[in-house]
Amino acid sequence: MKFSINRQAFVKALNDVARAISSRTTIPILTNIKLVLGEDELVLTGSNADISIESRIPASDTNAKLVIDTPGGITLPATFFINIVKHLPADDLQIELDGMRALITSGSASFNINGQDIHNYPQLPEMEDAQSLKVSAAQLIELIAQTKISASTQESRPILTGIHLQLAGQSVKAVTTDSHRLSQRIVTLTGTDDQVNANVIIPAKSFNELQPLLEGKDRVEIKLSANQAVFDLGNTVFYSRLLEGNYPETDRLIPTESTTEMTIDAGVLLAAIDRASLLSHESRNNVVQLVLSEGKAELSGTSQEVGQVKEELPAKTVVGEDLDISFNPDYVRDALRVLHGKTVELKFTTNLRPFIVIPEGETDNRQLQLITPVRTF
């Protein structure tokens, strides 16, 4: 294998596939990055067994300036190799193999590093009997951002670490819950005639790595099989395993009526919660209190060690029964952030039942955050 390439273009592709590489793996070769040079393209692959990312650099890409001399392939230690390429002195670099050693040269610098045979590297999954649809990358980014916040990080219930996607025709429903809060987003796909019916659970960790790759893209093709999801972004292809099992029935958790409601600007409430959190984070239980009474709203936070903060909220409306409720401020803050500064409605039933945060005027739960209050007595 022998080729030369523009260093910046190479670094971008390396950074993309590096998202899938972990230093903590039971398969040692997966700490390597795989390079395969064909007659007309260079293919880079990174994997951690749960996700795999493949990036293609075609010789026709004028920015990459890929010049292919001799096809071939090797796997190289990812962290070490990427750091070398980032620190090379010239705009271009050349890589040439001598057996299982790679000679990397750029300007006056040269490195020799040991690699391993590509045949020892696991093959990417075969997508058999896959359903396929093309979606807007912007819609997919929104779907991920508004739901991943409620995915569990506890491996004791693996199924809750995923985002549950239900696809029916051109409708996609995404739900996450960690049993303390729940996020739901329903979108109707735009710019596509694809009709897919599927019910899958994709690890939220996978979406964390996929989301940056979607930035600036127009369309993405999604392929779903029995145990894999593939996102084709053109020259970059992202593979993720699916979680096995049945996701909990979440519709029954969403209240259908309310006894107390508050309408307020999301940014105003977010800022007030930030201030209350300054004290609640110093307390062992990290709780703030919201009191709704006689058309007014008051937020407070207390720390026995530090003191107390109280603030009257400039709510647009407060209607219904009086209410005194406590909650984890971080959960509400996350919910408000993904609603992008809109005016929001908070709907309550009792001080011990979950309440919902929705954009003002939302009637069919297409965009919903649910939070379980904290008992303080």
UniProtKB/TrEMBL annotation:
The keyword Methyltransferase does not apply. It comes from the Bacteria. The keyword Nucleotidyltransferase applies. Residues 135-249 form the DNA polymerase III beta sliding clamp central domain. One of its GO terms (molecular function) is DNA-directed DNA polymerase activity. Keywords: Cytoplasm, DNA replication, DNA-binding, DNA-directed DNA polymerase, Nucleotidyltransferase, Transferase. Residues 1-125 form the DNA polymerase III beta sliding clamp N-terminal domain. CDD domains: beta_clamp (cd00140). Pfam families: DNA_pol3_beta, DNA_pol3_beta_2, DNA_pol3_beta_3. Its main location: cytoplasm. Residues 252-369 form the DNA polymerase III beta sliding clamp C-terminal domain. It is found in: Cytoplasm. Belongs to the beta sliding clamp family. NCBIfam families: dnan. Confers DNA tethering and processivity to DNA polymerases and other proteins. Acts as a clamp, forming a ring around DNA (a reaction catalyzed by the clamp-loading complex) which diffuses in an ATP-independent manner freely and bidirectionally along dsDNA. Initially characterized for its ability to contact the catalytic subunit of DNA polymerase III (Pol III), a complex, multichain enzyme responsible for most of the replicative synthesis in bacteria; Pol III exhibits 3'-5' exonuclease proofreading activity. PANTHER family: BETA SLIDING CLAMP (PTHR30478:SF0), DNA POLYMERASE III SUBUNIT BETA (PTHR30478). Forms a ring-shaped head-to-tail homodimer around DNA. This is Beta sliding clamp. It comes from Eupransor demetentiae.
